Amino acid sequence: MERRCARRWIIGCLLAVAVSHRGGGQSVRTTVDLGATRVRYEDSSTSTAVSLSPSAALLWSHGSLGAWGSGAQLSGSNWTLSGGMDGALRTPAVHAMTAEVAAFGGASTRRDGRHTAEYRSVLRGRLQNDDAGASVGGGVGQTWDGVEWRSLAFGEGMAWLVRAPWAAQLDVVPTTIRRGARFTDAGAEVVFRQGRVEFSGSVGLRRGQMDSLIDQSRQWGSVDATIWMTPAIGFVMAGGTYPASPTQALPGGRYIFAAIRLASLRSFGERSAASTQRVAVHDSALIDTVPTLVWQRTSESHYLFRVRASSAHRVELMSDLTQWRPVALVTDGGAWWHVSMPVSSGAHQVNVRIDGGAWIVPHGTLSVDDELGGVVGLFEIP
Fold it and tell me: Is the terminal CB of the chain with fewer CB neighbours within 10 Å at N or C?
């Protein structure tokens, strides 16, 4: 469970303390979870852990880069450290089709000398409209269980649907490990995000030629919820079962997790460190239901503002830059919408509206209270 409830430590801790970068057409979101976990493994042993788990994600229009880590103090004097990175690059959309190359790498170590590592790369094609899509792909990788490195190959198929504030995803991942198991994992996940509340639930099923380690965990499921008490402080609870890892020879188990989450932005959409894990490069397919705002300078006095709102049919922006009048954005033909306007240096406020709904604070800005008792996004132009 250490790999599941304590994911984020090594590189993520270097980024999690940073002030979020705003501008240059990109945004950074960071969180830190301070939590406690109770785990019962399939071999009947039980463990309790206290963990510190930072994470960071850099997002831009055609790619992403993430890092996470965790340091956990287990029962007695045992401890574990784990962490990793993932990234993806996407081509511009052509008739709603894009290509993507992605990679993931992670490792863990324990006081008892147990070490594991894994890395994967994948190439996928994606067909996507405003609120639904599907992708197919495949890749290769290497996994280390502390004794030997083994190669693996995998395929993947995914489909997703967004109906804000809901989103759903289905995926199927067949995997073959050299001198090991051949199996297929199928999963489904539903996510709800609205206001200060986030909720998700997932189920999974495994079939194939499996050894005794993973024969015990053919089905699993979990739920997690986050309530944001302030824009920067949230309370996280999660629980359920998770599968064994045949690639790293780790058993499955049952868990319950609670944490306080500190966020540098109002970053709805970050997952609990204890939520059911998939390969991290798969997560980009589940589109955020909260829009993301990025901006970049195009001339001496003008900036291009872009909003990612994948399920939208109409996107509007309202700001002190527009004298608080709604301005309609123009679609790029995919998930992104844009508008160009003159901007002066200094701090500015902004909100975004999707399909005529409520005005909300977009990702990429700092959520603050305004003088009228509402909430706006704050950003700064140098």
Answer: C
Average predicted confidence (pLDDT) for the chain: 79
Domain boundary among 285, 318, 347: 285
Element (H, E) at 5: helix 2-5
Residue 75 CA: distances (Å) to CA of 38, 78, 90, 242: 10, 6, 43, 20
**Rounded CA gap, 284 and 85, in Å?**
14
In this structure, how many other beta carbons lie within 10 angstroms of the beta carbon of residue 379?
20
Whether residues 152 and 226 fall in one domain = yes
Nearest to 284 by CA among 310, 265, 247, 313: 310
- DSSP state at residue 15: H
How sure is the predictor about 319, in pLDDT bands with cuts at 50, 70 and 90? very high
At 230-247, the pLDDT tens digits run 767 889 999 999 888 877
Q: Which of 259, 285, 311 is the last residue of a domain?
A: 285
For residues 185 and 303, membership in a common domain is answered with no
Q: Are 303 and 295 in contact, with CB atoms under 8 Å apart?
A: yes
Q: What is the pTM of this model?
A: 0.66
Torsion, Cα of 347, 352, 358, 360 (10° steps) = -50
Verify that 271 and 314 share a domain, yes or no. Answer: no
121 shares a domain with 264: yes
Instruction: For residue 363, give the CATH number of its domain.
Output: 2.60.40.10
Distances (CA, A) of 186 to 15, 21, 28, 329: 33, 37, 31, 38
Same domain, 239 and 360: no
Contact 377, 267 (CB under 8 A): no
Distances (CA, A) of 300 to 245, 322, 382: 53, 18, 12
